[in-house]
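A quick aside before the break. I want you to see a complete sequence-to-structure record at least once, exactly as it would be stored in a machine-readable document. Don't worry about memorizing anything.
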Amino acid sequence: MGSPSIQVRSLLKFAFHAETGEARVIVFIAGMPRSGSTFSFNIVRCLLEARGSVYQEPTESILSALRRTGEANHLLLKSHRGDRVTLGLAKLGAIKVVCTVRKPEDSIASWMTTFGFTLEESLSAMNAWLRMFNAIRRCSLIVSFEDIDRDPRSAAWKIARYVCDDADEFAVEQIAIEFTKERVKNLSAQVEARNGDIQDLGFSFMDKKTLFHRRHVSSVDTIAAADRISRKQVLLIRQSLAQWCDAEGNLR
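That is the input. The structure line, written in tokens, reads:
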């Protein structure tokens, strides 16, 4: 992994362009699975692309990504996990972090029905994310799934103001329109048909630019866990996540 001094030098070399004096933006999208994290990713991607070239990668390691940035002006990462260095930099405020959140049982039910993971696998992934979130929530912008679902334009503006000091509200509104549920549903159909630059993940297919999966949005209506999985499974999720959630399953 390299010594801490090498790690810091690598970050500083990218974050500050020595020739122009230009500050570069590094953003880590670290949302809960199935909570709007890919929406957030694309809002940030479009914002940064309007301000220079962007190197993007779905990875938990900022240092590995830094080695591949080339001449990019900005760095955009997305993962539901972060390695020790990435989380340490987040806690230091050296990178910007966006965490989308949702009622965990709804997230898990969506994860299971969209990608075919078992309840045990989904609980393991959720517990790992909750541990990460507990470590970085105080240094992150937190955006609720409900806000994205109800008013994506306002959610996009909240993200934009955090990432870019010079964000323009009208421009952000136009970006948000591109990623409404209806449009993402259509984009998901293109991924399903293997149109574009598509990556086979084994459990799904993903567009390499937008990171949208096939069946990313199966319905424009939000479906609660109780309407996706059994009552017994919902209660098991609440019991398993009691450390993080209240008796109704809401994130504390």
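Two observations worth writing down. Residues 119-136 form the longest helix (18 residues). The first strand starts at residue 26 and ends at 29. We'll return to this after the break.
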